[in-house]
Amino acid sequence: MLFCEVCNHEGTEQLRYTKEIYVRKDGLKQMLAIKKIYMDYETAPVGVSHMPQFAWELVSDKKNVKQKSYELQIAKDADFTDLIYNSGKTESEESAHVYAEGASLESGKRYFVRAKASDGQEETDWSETASFVTALAGKNGEWEEGAPAWKAPFVSAETDDSYKNVSKGTYVRGTFEIKKDIKEAYAFTTALGLYQFYLNGKKVGEDEMTPGWTSYRRHLLYQTYDVTEYLQKGINGAGAMLAPGWYKGVMGLTKARNNYGDQTAFTMELLIRYTDGTTESVYTDPSWKGCDSPVVFAEIYDGETYDAALEIPDWSKAETTKGDWKPVQLVFFDTQVMRAQYAAKVRVMDRIPAKRIFKTPAGDTVIDFAQNMAGRIEVTAAGKPGDVIELHCFEVLDKDGNVYRKIDMPFYCNHYFANGDMSLFVGDAVEDILLIKPEEDGNAKMKVLANHNTTWHYQRSHCHPTFSWDGKKLLYAADTDEWHDNLFLVDVPETID
CA angle, corner 228, sides to 111 and 290, nearest 5? Predict the structure, then answer.
């Protein structure tokens, strides 16, 4: 396949030259086509809080082809009978940063987009339909970048002080009734802490680690989900599994907890549009219930402990009768800092099988995935009630081929760096550069190698020592005169007494 791509967002040469063949609706071969539509650089954004900018990818089997005109349509329906915007034939070479001037959006609504273009000789068919979903509008239906008109309270299963200094997970749940046929439905959710959202026993969406780490007092992201297919006529169950996360979990160099708050909580607004043209909203409220989840420990840095004996089958279904459910507590949070998220979401991107399984000389079973990654482990196991399965993640083996996971350092440093064979570590303490040698008993010897005299006045001068490639020298920085960055190169001693 012959393939060459030239791209320019200013519109000068924005067509892709390719041998891909597109077929018109009438069955004829099409030489010029729109391959893909983008909205704010996304192909299907959900949770849009403003009219996005539009772009499209053009392909042609010819060289030196330029767009001469385009037509862009946005509609409330996939048949494009209810248009909110129609550019008409517009003479322009622009195929990026195209704006739908004058079009207005509704809160919590899916919109459909299509485009076609011409090079002056040939005109494309309408593109395949793309779509985007809006988030919650602000007060008076405004769509400026700002806070949504949030009505739902935050509800928490952590109803007493016993939860303030623990890292367990909790459930919150509620029920609601749907009496009419649904046309479309959208949920807007977020939490103080980490959460997973469930409807009628099913996890909603593919997002993980939501709502992410922000400076929560200034900025809390909420997520938007199309939940049309999750709902049913009759009684429905909604719920969330909560964990401390960055919000109230142990964080930072001081290992303090409750940095942003001491109570996890969840909020949900559910917008339902019925086929008869009416709408209904469902919110978290004081009628919701909460209880502890099987996650008895969960921390960003320290992992998770899951007690299968505490599982509550079908906990998020409307008909569940099991579990020690208690009334939730309402938690105040300033919703003026909430903003919609429609990009940069954490999702499972791949599933990687174990490449090999082996035992170390010390007798540990190692599951090797053959690469460093950010992820989680999925395992199938069997056992008796009370059996414990421990999974520990690590990156390297020591020189003897054993698991190298934890060393009890004799002194706290801000950062630790290892040499090539992991036989020495260097750390930047408050005033000194420390050389540390691990011992076979899990302890370590320490030697002050240098005094960095860093004032910490300029963070650009972080000490951050590192070994040379041969492991014989150390390089570190310091702002010893408070005005200049200084680099120091020192020898690594052969022994540590």
Answer: 125
**What pLDDT, on the 0 to 100 scale, is given for residue 25?**
54
What lies within 8 Å, CB to CB, of 386 at 6+ separation is none
pTM for the model: 0.80
**Residue 21 structure tokens:** 């063949």
Residue 11 pLDDT level (bands cut at 50, 70, 90): very low
DSSP letters spanning 158-176: --SGGGTT----EEEEEEE
Question: 424 with 390, same domain?
Answer: no
Query: What pLDDT band is residue 12 in, cutting at 50, 70 and 90?
Result: very low
In a domain? residue 149: no
Q: Phi and psi for 247 in degrees, rounded to 5?
A: -65, -55
Cβ atoms within 10 Å, residue 146: 14
Whole-number Å distance between alpha carbons of 47 and 421: 48
* Residues 191 and 326 placed together within one structural domain of the fold: yes
356-394 residues labelled b (16+ CB within 10 A) or e (exposed): eeeeeeeeeeeeeeeeeeeeeeeeeeeeeeeeeeeeeee
Segment 78-91, tens digit of pLDDT: 999 999 999 999 99
The range of the structural domain enclosing residue 357 comes to 349-395
CB atoms within 10 A of CB 105: 21
List, in sequence order, every residue forming a beta bridge with 182; answer none if it has no partner.
274
Distance, CA of 135 to CA of 49 (rounded, Å): 5
Same domain, 205 and 319: yes
Domain count, the chain: 4
Using the predicted structure, report yes or no on whether residue 35 has a pLDDT greater than 60.
Answer: yes
For 262-301, the pLDDT digits (tens) are: 999 999 999 999 999 999 999 999 999 999 999 999 998 8
Q: How many beta carbons lie within 10 A of that of residue 305, not counting itself?
A: 16
What is the pLDDT at residue 197? 98
